[in-house]
Automatic annotation (TrEMBL):
Family under the similarity heading: Belongs to the short-chain dehydrogenases/reductases (SDR) family.
Recorded GO MF terms: oxidoreductase activity
The protein's name in its UniProt record: NAD(P)-dependent dehydrogenase (Short-subunit alcohol dehydrogenase family)
Presence of keyword Oxidoreductase: yes
Gene3D superfamilies: NAD(P)-binding Rossmann-like Domain
UniProt entry keywords in alphabetical sequence: Oxidoreductase
PANTHER family linked to this entry: DIHYDROANTICAPSIN 7-DEHYDROGENASE
Length: 165
């Protein structure tokens, strides 16, 4: 049984205590240095779908957490942004024992078939998965002084899957 009442799944995540404790520890330095926080969420926070439910729900909470942080600490000089990737070429999709393989098996497909068809199925106009280096470059930019006027935003990096105005 899957979903909100099912037993924990390896791709379920626990967002809350660890992030709050890390922020609490870093906050004095962030305030003193007028630093930047970059949360990594998911485009799944914006796209309701069947699963993994705990993962997408936690990511939606993390996105909302970033919005609350910028309201509280933005006036004190701390920038807060969120990066929301779509499917990234990581072990989640590439590992023969990962989530992609599990999802493919549930659909009667080979993992390679699922991954090859994922960009089209998700409406990714780039026609390919996002590369990890692309996500890393966006995070590095948002944390840098070059982005000193960018704050309070959720930056999609999903190959055009989520259509926004």
């Amino acid at each position: 049984m899957r979903g909100v009442v099912a037993a924990p799944h390896p791709y379920d995540i626990d967002v809350g205590a660890d992030e709050a404790e890390g922020l609490r520890a870093a906050l004095p330095s962030l305030l003193r240095r007028r630093g930047a926080i970059v949360n990594v969420s998911s485009n799944g926070a914006r796209i309701p779908h069947a699963g993994p439910i705990a993962y997408t729900t936690a990511k939606a909470a993390l996105t909302a957490f970033g919005k609350a942080l910028v309201e509280e600490f933005g006036p004190r000089g701390v920038r807060v942004n969120t990066v929301s990737p779509g499917p990234v070429r990581t072990a989640m999709w590439e590992d023969p024992n990962g989530y992609g393989a599990e999802l493919a098996a549930s659909m009667g497909l080979e993992r390679e078939q699922l991954v090859a068809g994922l960009p089209a199925a998700m409406g990714m106009t780039t026609g390919r998965l996002v590369e990890p280096a692309e996500v890393g470059a966006l995070i590095a930019y948002l944390a840098s002084p070059l982005a000193s006027s960018i704050t309070g935003a959720d930056h999609l990096i999903d190959g055009g899957a989520v259509k926004t105005a």
